[in-house]
Every structure is written in structure tokens, then in C-alpha cells.
Design goal:
The complex is a heterodimer of chains A (812) and B (315). Chain A is α/β, with parallel strands linked by helices and 812 residues long. Chain A has 33 helices and 19 strands. Helices cover 50% and strands 8% of the residues of chain A. The radius of gyration of chain A is 26 Å and the shape is globular. The chains are: A alpha/beta (812), B alpha/beta (315).
Chain lengths: 812, 315
């Protein structure tokens, strides 16, 4: 039987600190970046980014706190968040007064820091990348299709987030040390200069120069932490702590440049390298990848050779995970709603197979899972890779962890994830080395720049809005533009192909054709917009530290944003599969098959948000068949909806030459986007949530979990290389004890072997959630999974809580 | 054509036999256990059921059920808070003395607050429905459980369904009170892998007084199943003030020992009152409620039975 290891006193204390501390905004990074940008307008793209990062490495605070064995933080204070003005800043200035008091994820801000930001902030309104984005988007978008609702691009201030959703190459840092990169890049530079900079080598030379600048920089940064440890050791009166500090200093002087020698060093090197990536860009789906694979062999060696006891190794792991949890990012209030609960989204992947296909579980796999379960941490999110050869013990650990923490880890099935990657052109050996990034997107670790999150804000295709355009002559009746943080009502006009109105349509085929026409049109526009965005980022915001380490970049002399990585991807996510599948099915049933209402009546009902048509609405909800009940007639529309989107988006080609990938992971945007979507034929009222992930519409799967799963499995998930997300909730009563674990495993295996890619399991009851709403104090530790990451339920905003409860109710 | 009457089919059954299973619940039972948590399983007739939780309120559905009822059996009922809208709505009350369970109101109730409990299936249709979940049985070492009510009361139908399931390689369990002629039970022998067999009380008089039938035939049938070499999982509902006394538990354990190797497991099922609300769906009355036995009490009983060398679990 799986058991929790004891938690050391030191770890208990840090965890308490973590839960008690209200985060604040730390402006160290903001100040350095602002001064650097103001002083250096002459520097071009990649050199500006490289020297800016170098400046951060040389001047950011290097806090070493009394309780720490693993160090590094992008600011002075525990749990503070840095500020990242280079990408977009208007929202920060707009919301600066409400950060300390807002109801979701508040942050304190010192008055003098606020004053400094207000004094300098205006600079960024013209100098952030976001300020230039509207210049590169086609005018035709704004003129002709603004307000379509399928794409989120609004009238102004689009794309506030940088390119994120990637994973670094930790092996180079841990096993080789970045000293090897410095040698390589210096040799390349010398060689090029000797031969003369021919052809495009003027650009490549700048790339290598940037790589050298930041690689030296992160080594300096690491040694600055060593110096701080030495300084503290010199004045430390506690001999035990003094010895720790001296050992830490020794390690910090060694690692980053040279290969790691111990488990402690491997963890520390991973943490500082990742922190370097975060400092360069910002926490935006930047993922750890296969952490257990980077560090596991060091742990095994230390334990075998007696350098560490198992307890010490676990304590180090706990402290590492708490350090990752400590990293914060201030999000805009709007974005916070889709990813609530103080998260920096640094997803860690565990388990799976090695490059030869053998099970890759090691001692670190279990220790990391133990950290998450015992410390009840939703952050960092964990993904557990499962396959035919996953050991019994790991299945048990995964299921027990998800029972204890609620949705952590999420489970990914290797067969389907790897198949989807191979359809992207990745070899089997490399596909075996995949991790999940961002939310749930498969990506090869260390050699794949999958850019699976698009521009962050607008990486979603809202399918029910396309349905509206299809049945309303190209016009979304709830046309709105989300300009930055504001929702602007727009004039109603056709923004998509004009395929006529539902009441003019005489067959189901006409409806389907119209929907497909709209989807082909809007997926094409999605690709066009993000490709323009990528053009801007490739010019202004290359990623030199990531590129220094990513396989392929040094060889090709190209930044990841210029297509330098061995593999390239571009991803999108869709929202509302279930809502559209049900809606199409209902149009077919009600108007064509059973002739309960005419197309005119249904159209009028929708336009009037069912006002005057309540009987029809109730008939649809209660009497019609719905996707999710293993009914072939209803489920065939799921396949149609899933394939129409994935075919459309996959046709797109990214600036880095690869095809786009389809995904389906709505975070909680299905709730937010629902607020802007008019009534749909499935009986949904205007403003109500859209369906979640690839799951059926909330409360419409009335035939139990078997039928739900069998329905969901009716489309080919391997066509979704950008990941799928399936939430499943269980009553704790159904899964008691070891026998319960086995049964849950059997359900999961049935889903996976039937073609499922990813599962998130929540073991909760609706009553428990309702009580948690009323007595949040008593449920402080209840973690729920709200998409690719989890959150403390009590920190999720009210509407999302209600949605979770509704969905739970259905399982009773 | 043979048909059988069911009141429910449940997937993801985790406590009705090995693995994860789908359970088909047949309607109608000769016993009248006062603690029964599925009161709708007792009558063989279809019954009108009303679920307060699903009722949208008379204003929301323009009183469709009232209009549909030919007997004026639906009247204005209590108010309730509607969670979705946050407003108070007026629900209904079914006058059971006037209602003849014709189901016209259920046809009119789109919200499925009013439903006619009891649906007739042909064996072919039921087998096809149960086979939809085959992938789950295969991955979990599960299968189908035929339960009730008392399934043996619909023996012709049950035999056809079991035959079909076995032909498709499905593990089968039959959940029975054992109160049926041996001839009926005997017909199931070739098609049942596991019998979930209830023993409610060893004393015939008590059995008769409380659950309305004698226990003699139940005990005889159990012995015959054991003699036929069938696997038995004995289920004992632990009911306060009825069968939880040491004397009865010891007697039950002794009987289980007599059944020999056939008994693979003894399940002690603690009384719970989750089914109480279900009575109000089909009638105006609630049953007498008891206090569920404590965990300590259950553990005591488990240990007592286990001391006879039996494999005993709780739940």
C-alpha cells in the first residue's frame, strides 16, 4: 500500500510560510529592464534581449534565505512576483490600484515602488512589443472580420503575452555544463571571422554573440549566489548552517559551467537554469519537462554511494518543489480568471519511457510525486506519463497522489501522445522523449520549439461562435471586441462567409457545409494572425538562453524563433466541441429528423435567447439525444466538429516551416467565452458556460461514466498534437482503498486503450465543494484541477466554482 | 416475445462483484425489507416517480404535467429554491390515491422530474446495451451483475440475458435474495459465475415478521448452490435492532461455514439512510429510519465472523 513519507520539520516550516505569505510585487526586474531599455534604444532585437538578460544576471538580487538549501528567486522577498514590462504593460498600469485588493490572487505593492512604476510606466506604452502588434496585423482583420467571436483579437492592444509554452534543454545544463556551449560558440565565432562573414552569417554571428553573452551571464548569476552564501557563512554563528552555506557556495561556484556532481547540484542547476529562462521571458507556460529524467540518476548514485539518505534526498526534493511553487506571476485580472490560484504554470513531467522504449521510472519520479502529495501543492502542476510497462507501484503512486491533491498529477498515455507527435514528423526515438508543456501539450524535451500556446491571449478558436456565423449569414449576434482588458460592443455585421440563415436552410447537409466554410475561414485567419505575431517576436524578442541550449540552434546558427530548433511546432486550442456537437445534433433532430420545430422557430428562439420558446428549450434539454451517452446519432457530430477544426488548423504553416497543430484545452476559458456567446441550439442560454475540454455539455451525459468515455473516444485524438484535456470526477466513495485504486486504473486504461490521450481525475463530491464555498477556511487545502494546472478550490472565482459544482453533481 | 422489466442500469458499479461492472436492476420483489434503499424495486408495476430536485417549477414549464393528467392527480405542491436561477419556484404534489401510474404526466415533463419507473426490455436489447461497456469489463476483470428487486421472479427473461452474456464471454453475477423455487435458480446454474446471496436473518419467525417471507427456502437454496459447486458471495445487510446481535451473527457465520468452500467472501453491508429520499419519490411516506451502525460496531462484527475462518469485508 502506498504511503506518505514523513515531512521534515524544516519543510513543514517552509510550506507553512508558503501558504501564509501574501505575495507582493517586486520591482527589481522592472527597474533594471526599464533603465536598460531607456538607455539602449540603439540595440537591435536579439542583442538587446541578450544584453538585457545579461544585465539582469549581473544585477538582480541574489537572496539566500535562512531556510534554504536550494536558492534563486527573481526578487528580494519570499513568494514575490517580478514584473515583465517588455511584452505588454498597459494592463498593469490600468490595474495597478486594484492588485492589493482584487478578490482573485491579490498582490501587495509598496508605495514607493508603485510611484516608480507610475513615473516610468508610460515609456512602455510605446516600447512594449504589444504596442507594435496592431501595426503588423493585417488591416483587413480590423476592417472586415473584427467581432466574429471565433477569434479573440479585439480592436486594439492584442497579444499581451510573449511566446511561451516551451521547455528548455536541461540535460545540457546538468550533464554537460554550459561551459561546453561557451567553448563551442567561441570556436564558431572565431571560425566565421577567420573565413569572413559570408551570406547570412552577419545574422548568425549576432546569434552566436547573443548566446555567448547570456551563457556567460547565467554562469555569473550562479556565482553571485555562491558569493552570497560565502558572505553569509562568514558571519554565521550556527556551525550546522555555516557548513551548509559553504557547501552550497562550493556547488554554486561549480555548477552551470561544469557538469553536476550530486543530486543536490542537479536540482540547483535545473532551478537556476529555469529561473534564467523565466527572467528572459516570463512565466508563461515555460515548463520543466522530464525533471525525474534529468536528476534521477544523480539521486540514485548519491543514495547508493551513501552521500545521501533517502530522507535527505526527499527533503531536497521537497525544498526544490517548494521553490518552484514560490515563483509567482502577476496576471491581469481577466487572465487570472482563466488560470486562478497563484500559478506560474511550470509543468513537470514524470515517468514514461526512455529513448529505447524502456520504462524510465526512477527514484526521483516517486520523490517528486511524494512532494506534491504530502505538501498538497497544486503548483507546480505535474503530468505523469503512463504506458503498457508502467510499474504497478507508479500507477498506485499516481492514483494516490491524485486522490490526495485532487487532479495532480494529470495522466498522459504515451501511445497516443507519441502517435500525435509522429504525425508532426518527429521520429519514434525523439517522440519517446516527450514531455507536456503549458497545459497539456505534448512536445519533445530539449529539441522541439512547439510554441504550443500561440500568443497566449488569442491561442483559442471558439467553435460555437463559428456555428453562429454559419447559421446567421456570417454574423455573430453577440459581436464584441476584447480590446486589451475591455470588452467593447461592436456593430453587428457579417464577419465571416455569408452562407445564409438557418431559416433558409433546407437540409442538415447545408448546415454542416456552412459550419465547415466558417471554420475553414476562421482557422485560416487564426494562422494568419499568429504568424504575423511570430514575425514581430522573431524580430524583437528572440530567446537567446533557450536557443543556446536547445538542440539544433547552435548547429544552424538560428534562434528558436527563427526556426533553429531540431523540431518546430505551432499550436492552437479550441473551445466548445461538445456545445457545437450537441447543437448540430439538435438542429438535425428538431428541425430535420423529428420536425419538432421549423428552422425559423429554432432560429427565432436562439436570437431571442429562448424568450417565448421555453417549452422548446426544455424539450431539447430533456427529450433530445445528446453527445456523451454513447448514442451513435448524437456522437457522430462530435467527430465532425473535432475533425473540421483539426483539419482546418493543421492546414496552416508556421513561419518556422512546420504545420500547425490542433488542441483542445480550454483552461476555464469555456466559462469566460461562454459569457460572450449567444444562445446555442443545445438549449444553452446566452452567457452560460461552453462545454469543457473534449467532455460532453455539462449535465447532458446522463448515462454514466462508461457511456461518457465511449462517446468521447469517437474522434481521433492523435490528430490533436497540441493536446486534449478530459476531466473526470469521482466521488471519493467510489474509489475507497486499494481496491478502489485498481478500479480507477481500469477506467483510465479503458479510456487510454480506446484512444484517449490525457485524463485529469478529481475525487470530490458536489456537497464537499458547496461546503467549501461556504466555509473556505475549512477547505483551504482542497485542490481541484481546472485544466492544465490545478488550483486551490477556495481561490477559484465564484462562477468557476459553480461550474465545477454543476459538473460534479452530474456524477451523483 | 419475452420481456423483462428493469428500473435502472448502472455503469461503474464497484461493489457488486469483482472488477468494475454494469448492474441491471430488475423490478419487483416478494420481500418487503423495511430498510430497503431502493423502494422502487419492490413493486412489479410501473410507478410514477417525482424528483423534487429536477422539477423546474410550475411557472417555468407552464404546468404541463397538470394539464396532461386525466385524473387531476397533480396539485400545487411546496415551494423550493431553484439553484440555477436563485429564485423560489412552486413545485407539485402527486395525489397518490388518484394516480393510476398511467405516465401521461411523465411524457409531458421534459425536465424528467416526473418519470415512469420501470422499462420493459427484450433480452436482445438488454444484452446489446450491456455489451456497450465490454471494454470496461475486460480491462478491470469485471462484468455484468443482474440485480433487483428479485431477478429470479423474471426467470425466463433472466436466463435469456445470462445466456447471451455468457455467449459473449462476459463474467456474470446474480444478486438474489434466494427466495425463489429451486427450479428457477437451477436454470441459472450454467450461466452464472458468482452468486451475490443475501442472508438477512437466521431466525425464521423474525425473518417472516420483518421481511414478510420465511427463510427456509432461502437457506435450502443456498445449500443446494453450494452443493452444485457454485461460487457464493454472502451479503448481510447489518440492520440495527434486527440482525446485528451476536447470536444472529454467530448463527449466520455457522451457516456460512456449513456452505463450505463455495463461500468466497462475506460482505457486511452497514445500514444507511441514503435511500430514504427515494420513498418520497414514489409515495407520501418515509420509512422508519435507524441510526447507521458505527464503524467500530461494523469492525466488531467483521472480527466476529472472521473468527469462523471466513473472508469478511465491510461494504
Amino acid at each position: 500500500m502506498y504511503q506518505n513519507a514523513p515531512i521534515s520539520e524544516r519543510v513543514q516550516k517552509i510550506r507553512r510560510m508558503y501558504r501564509d505569505k501574501k505575495p507582493k510585487i517586486d520591482i527589481s526586474r522592472y527597474r533594471l529592464v526599464t533603465e536598460f531599455y531607456m538607455d539602449n534604444p540603439q540595440l537591435p532585437g536579439i542583442l538587446k534581449r541578450a544584453k538585457n538578460l545579461r544585465n539582469l544576471f549581473e544585477n538582480m538580487p541574489t537572496p539566500v534565505r535562512d531556510h534554504e538549501l536550494i536558492v534563486g528567486h527573481p526578487g528580494e522577498e519570499f513568494r514575490s512576483s517580478a514584473v515583465y514590462p517588455e511584452h505588454s504593460f498597459f494592463w498593469f498600469l490600468d490595474e495597478i490600484d486594484i492588485f492589493p485588493t482584487r478578490d482573485v490572487d491579490p498582490y501587495d505593492l509598496d508605495p514607493e515602488d508603485k510611484e516608480y512604476i507610475l513615473k516610468t510606466g508610460e515609456f512602455w506604452l510605446k516600447n512594449s512589443t504589444c504596442a507594435a502588434i496592431d501595426e503588423v496585423f493585417p488591416d483587413e482583420y480590423y476592417r472586415d472580420i473584427l467581432g466574429n467571436g471565433v477569434l479573440n483579437f479585439g480592436p486594439k492592444n492584442n497579444s499581451g503575452s510573449p511566446i511561451g509554452h516551451y521547455c528548455g534543454n536541461f540535460w545540457k545544463v546538468v550533464d554537460k555544463g554550459l561551459g561546453s556551449i561557451l567553448e563551442e560558440v567561441r570556436a564558431k565565432k572565431a571560425d566565421m571571422l577567420e573565413k569572413g562573414l559570408q551570406g547570412d552569417e552577419g545574422q548568425k554571428f549576432q546569434f552566436y554573440r547573443a548566446v555567448e553573452t547570456v551563457t556567460e551571464g547565467i554562469i555569473i548569476y550562479t556565482k553571485r549566489y555562491a558569493a552570497e552564501c560565502e558572505r553569509q557563512a562568514a558571519v554565521c554563528t550556527d556551525p550546522v548552517r555555516k557548513a551548509e552555506l559553504l557547501q552550497m557556495a562550493d556547488s554554486l561556484n561549480w555548477i552551470m559551467e561544469k557538469p553536476c556532481r550530486t543530486y543536490h547540484e542537479a536540482l540547483q542547476a535545473c532551478f537556476l537554469y529555469q529561473l534564467g529562462l523565466l527572467l528572459d521571458s516570463q512565466p508563461h507556460g515555460i515548463s520543466y519537462g522530464r525533471l525525474d529524467q534529468y536528476v534521477g540518476k544523480y539521486a540514485e548514485r548519491d543514495i547508493a554511494e551513501g552521500r545521501l539518505t533517502k530522507e535527505q534526498a526527499q527533503e531536497l526534493t521537497d525544498m526544490f518543489i517548494l521553490k518552484v511553487a514560490e515563483i509567482n506571476k502577476v496576471w491581469s485580472t481577466g487572465a487570472t480568471k482563466s488560470g486562478p490560484g497563484y500559478t506560474s504554470g511550470q509543468l513537470i513531467t514524470l515517468g514514461g519511457v526512455d529513448r529505447d522504449g524502456n520504462d524510465a521510472t526512477n527514484v526521483a519520479t516517486y520523490m517528486i510525486m511524494q512532494s506534491s502529495a504530502r505538501l498538497k501543492l497544486h503548483n507546480p502542476p505535474l503530468a505523469l506519463r503512463l504506458h503498457e510497462g508502467t510499474p504497478e507501484e507508479l500507477w498506485e503512486a499516481g492514483i494516490e497522489t491524485t486522490k490526495q491533491v485532487g487532479g495532480v498529477p494529470c495522466f498522459e498515455w504515451d501511445d497516443i501522445a507519441m502517435e500525435s507527435l509522429m504525425r508532426r514528423g518527429i521520429t519514434l526515438e525523439d517522440a519517446r522523449n516527450y514531455c507536456l508543456i503549458g497545459c497539456v501539450e505534448p512536445c519533445v524535451c530539449g529539441c522541439d520549439f512547439a510554441n504550443s500556446g500561440g500568443d497566449g491571449n488569442n491561442a483559442y478558436t471558439i467553435l460555437p461562435a463559428a456555428l453562429w456565423c454559419a447559421i446567421n449569414n456570417g454574423t455573430n449576434p453577440m459581436a464584441f471586441g476584447r480590446g486589451g482588458n475591455q470588452e467593447v460592443k461592436l456593430e453587428l455585421k457579417p464577419t465571416g462567409p455569408q452562407c445564409g440563415y438557418l431559416y433558409e436552410m433546407t437540409s442538415m447537409q447545408q448546415v454542416l457545409d456552412a459550419y465547415k466554410t466558417e471554420m475553414d475561414f476562421f482557422t485560416k485567419w487564426q494562422v494568419s494572425m499568429i504568424n504575423c505575431y511570430e514575425y514581430l517576436y522573431a524580430m524583437r524578442n528572440p530567446l537567446p538562453l533557450l536557443s543556446a541550449t536547445m538542440d539544433g540552434c547552435l548547429e544552424s546558427g538560428k534562434d528558436v524563433l527563427w526556426g533553429g530548433a531540431k523540431y518546430n511546432g505551432a499550436g492552437n486550442s479550441s473551445i466548445g466541441h461538445g456545445t457545437v456537437a450537441d447543437s448540430l445534433n439538435i438542429i438535425d433532430q428538431v428541425c430535420f429528423r423529428d420536425k419538432i420545430a421549423s428552422t425559423r422557430e429554432l432560429y427565432d428562439a436562439l436570437i431571442n435567447d429562448w424568450e417565448g420558446y421555453e417549452d422548446l428549450r426544455q424539450y431539447i434539454v430533456g427529450r433530445c439525444s445528446h453527445f456523451g451517452n454513447n448514442d451513435p446519432e448524437a456522437d457522430k457530430y462530435l467527430k465532425f466538429v473535432a475533425d473540421t477544426y483539426s483539419e482546418g488548423i493543421t492546414r496552416g504553416i508556421s513561419p518556422r516551416g512546420c504545420h500547425w497543430s490542433a488542441g483542445c484545452w480550454p483552461v476555464t476559458l469555456n466559462v469566460v467565452m461562454g459569457m460572450f456567446t449567444a444562445a446555442t441550439p443545445d438549449g444553452r442560454h446566452a452567457g452560460a458556460p461552453l462545454s469543457d475540454g473534449i467532455s460532453p455539455v455539462q449535465s447532458m451525459d446522463k448515462s454514466g461514466p462508461f457511456a461518457t468515455i465511449n462517446s468521447i473516444l469517437k474522434f481521433d485524438q492523435a490528430n490533436y498534437a497540441n493536446g486534449t484535456l478530459c476531466n473526470m470526477k469521482f466521488h471519493p466513495t467510489a474509489l475507497q482503498g486499494a481496491e478502489g485504486d485498481k478500479k480507477l486504473r481500469a477506467v483510465m486504461e479503458t479510456y487510454f486503450k480506446g484512444g484517449g490521450m490525457e485524463l485529469q481525475i478529481n475525487v470530490v463530491s458536489a456537497n464537499m465543494l458547496r461546503e467549501a464555498q461556504e466555509k473556505p477556511k475549512d477547505y483551504e487545502d482542497l485542490v481541484v484541477r481546472v485544466a492544465g494546472f490545478s488550483a486551490y478550490f477556495v481561490e477559484v472565482y465564484k462562477e468557476a466554482q459553480d461550474d465545477l459544482i454543476r459538473r460534479t453533481e452530474m456524477s451523483v | 416475445m419475452i420481456t423483462g422489466r428493469l428500473y435502472d442500469i448502472q455503469g461503474f458499479s464497484v461493489q457488486d462483484g469483482p472488477g468494475i461492472r454494469t448492474t441491471a436492476f430488475l423490478k419487483g420483489c416478494p420481500l418487503r425489507c423495511p430498510w430497503c434503499h431502493s423502494p422502487e424495486s419492490q413493486s412489479f408495476a410501473k410507478q410514477l416517480s417525482w424528483m423534487n430536485m429536477r422539477c423546474l417549477g410550475l411557472d417555468a414549464c407552464s404546468s404541463r404535467c397538470m394539464k396532461a393528467c386525466p385524473k387531476d392527480a397533480i396539485e400545487v405542491g411546496p415551494k423550493k429554491m431553484d439553484i440555477a436561477s436563485g429564485t423560489e419556484v412552486t413545485t407539485i404534489h402527486v395525489k397518490r390515491d388518484l394516480c393510476d401510474d398511467c405516465g401521461k404526466c411523465a411524457d409531458a415533463c421534459y425536465a424528467e422530474a416526473l418519470t415512469l419507473c420501470g422499462k420493459d426490455w427484450t433480452p436482445e436489447d438488454l444484452i446489446a446495451r450491456l455489451m456497450q461497456d465490454k471494454n470496461f469489463y475486460d480491462n478491470s476483470g469485471g462484468g455484468v451483475t443482474i440485480s433487483g428487486g428479485e431477478p429470479l421472479c423474471q426467470i425466463d427473461f433472466v436466463v435469456e440475458v445470462l445466456k447471451g452474456l455468457k455467449a459473449n464471454g462476459v463474467h456474470t453475477a446474480l444478486d438474489t435474495t434466494g427466495f425463489a423455487p429451486w427450479e428457477a435458480l437451477e436454470r441459472t446454474l450454467p450461466y452464472v459465475d458468482l452468486y451475490l446471496y443475501d442472508l438477512k436473518h437466521m431466525d425464521n419467525e423474525k425473518h417472516k415478521t420483518v421481511v414478510a417471507v420465511p427463510n427456509k427456502i432461502i437457506h435450502e437454496n443456498a445449500l443446494k448452490l453450494a452443493e452444485a459447486g457454485k461460487a457464493l458471495q454472502i451479503r448481510i445487510p447489518v440492520i440495527p435492532r434486527f440482525n446485528e446481535d451476536e447470536e444472529n451473527i454467530r448463527a449466520t457465520a455457522e451457516f456460512c461455514v456449513k456452505l463450505g468452500d463455495s463461500v468466497k467472501m462475506v460482505q457486511l453491508l452497514p445500514y444507511h439512510n441514503l435511500g430514504v429520499m427515494k420513498y418520497l419519490r414514489i409515495s407520501d411516506g418515509k420509512p422508519v429510519e435507524a441510526v447507521p451502525p458505527s464503524d467500530e460496531k461494523m469492525e466488531q462484527l467483521r472480527e466476529l465472523m472472521a473468527s469462523y475462518g471466513l473472508n469478511v469485508t465491510i461494504h
